[in-house]
Amino acid sequence: MLLFNALRQAWREGFTLSTLRADVVAGITVGVVAIPLGMALAIAVGVPPQHGLYTVIVAGFLAALLGGSRFNITGPTAAFVVILLPITQQYGLTGLMLATMMSGAILLLMGVLRLGQLVAYVPYPVTTGFTAGIGLTIAFLQLKDLLGLSVATNPIHFPEKVMAYATAMPTINLSDTLVGVITIAVFILWAKLKTKVPAHVVALVSGTLVALVINQMDGAHVALLGEKFHYQIGDIVGQGIPQVLPQFILPWQDDAFSWSLVIELLPAAFTIAMLGCIESLLCAVVADGMTSTKHNPNAELVGQGIANMVVPFFGGIPATAAIARTATNIRAGGFSPISAMVHALFVLAAMIALAPMLSYVPMSALAGLLIMVAWNMSEAPHFVHTVKVAPRRDVAVLLTCFILTVVFDMVVAVVVGLLLAGLLFIQRIATLTTVNVVAGNHPHQNFGDDVIVYDINGPLFFAASEKALSVIDRINLDARAVVMDFTDVTTIDITAIHAFENALDRVRDYPVYLVGVAPHIVDKLNTAGVLALENIALFDSAEALRAHLSSKAHNVQP
Q1: What is the pLDDT of residue 49?
Q2: Are 225 and 359 in contact, with CB atoms under 8 Å apart?
Q3: Cα(414)–Cα(2) distance, rounded to whole angstroms?
Q4: How much is the pTM?
Q5: DSSP line for 9-32
Q6: Which of 111, 169, 316, 446 makes the best surface tag, with the fewest CB within 10 Å?
Q7: Where would I find the beta strands (DSSP E) of 59-148?
Q8: How far apart are alpha carbons 331 and 527 in whole angstroms?
């Protein structure tokens, strides 16, 4: 059963009152971190901050309740920013929520079809490259609020954004910049203390207090969250974050449902689903490593899928498991999915109780917080180390994914990265396939001096077969037989079978003996009709062939 998998696993491990208390403490700790991150990430994708909190509350609760990882904390994540911002700019909040629902359906389908293991086929240089590229892009996008820039245009593509931000540099607001820099500095210094109080909270509170002081001064002003965002619920109009429960809405809001819009959003929804799959399952793997447990990847995809299908009906945006928040949950003593559910309920209670106070949070402080999140997710020191020590082919894949993510988007980066990694892998494997001519009296063969032996090694497939089998050529007239040793051949495809037929044609005047052929390769050769050739004989072992050749030699003696 895929539903409630993590809950059932925790119950079997021995859920007690003490583990419940640990879950509550861990949930509150993570909830404190999730509040500023939820708001900041919502703003980063171009929607009001409450939508990030709605995502933490609804998706965070459902993914934990239904999913397959005991420790994953689900909510909006930085990795989504570069994908979601263009959707918001082009289709608005309506398009974003519809794409969220569609991506949830794709994730649910992947889980039901048990495709959770596919993430293992994404090469490490690809994930490292696009993750670092996402980190750089997110950090750059925060410069607008960090520096208080007045940007005249809001282009979609990164190179155009660089030009727009450079043009806006004369409008820098030193007050906003000071608050942002202080937020970043406090975050870095507090993190080095390694206390139980999260650096996110201390940094944001410090930035907010500095902003309140600056705003009391003449001629100085720091932009606050409540000044930038407004809401309207019925006849109620307010600033900042509404002090109400998440409301049930249709993802397409006042617009009529449109299949044409669904078709337009399908590529974006697929991208969201793929990234959500990769992020949530990688997060679960990290959590397993920290706790010596094992998650169910298919159940996790089902939980993530349902959460993303439901959250748009309450104003939420795409969600997936977040590694930093999950690690905080584990370090705080979380034992079961109850901690993630408590974290969602805590954010709900805090939003209702503290919404007016959240309006005083400076935009530049949130930007500084996201810059630190981007730095941590990019793992820049590790990225540089990998470039220094990895094989050149892997470095090429990594840098290609990194550059394409920044210049274009993650979709292009992942597609090109996978293709490039696949081609380089094929080239690498092709070099392992060889055909060597050995003497008939080779100590491992000993078939006689007048027998030519071709020792075939490695997989025979389209990229390797033609070059390798070209070694088999017309032979010495003094030879009485040809032996082809397939002992070390692991597989063969139709391209290799065709090349093998050509090689056999070059030695058609001699008896050809195939030895050590694996059963599945025998089936393929038999289906292709190769074994029906008159001069072909098949032997299971070198000993059997040696006995056959010895008897033939004895029979032809005078």
Answers
A1: 95
A2: yes
A3: 29
A4: 0.82
A5: HHHHHH--HHHHHHHHHHHHHHHH
A6: 169
A7: 74-75
A8: 58
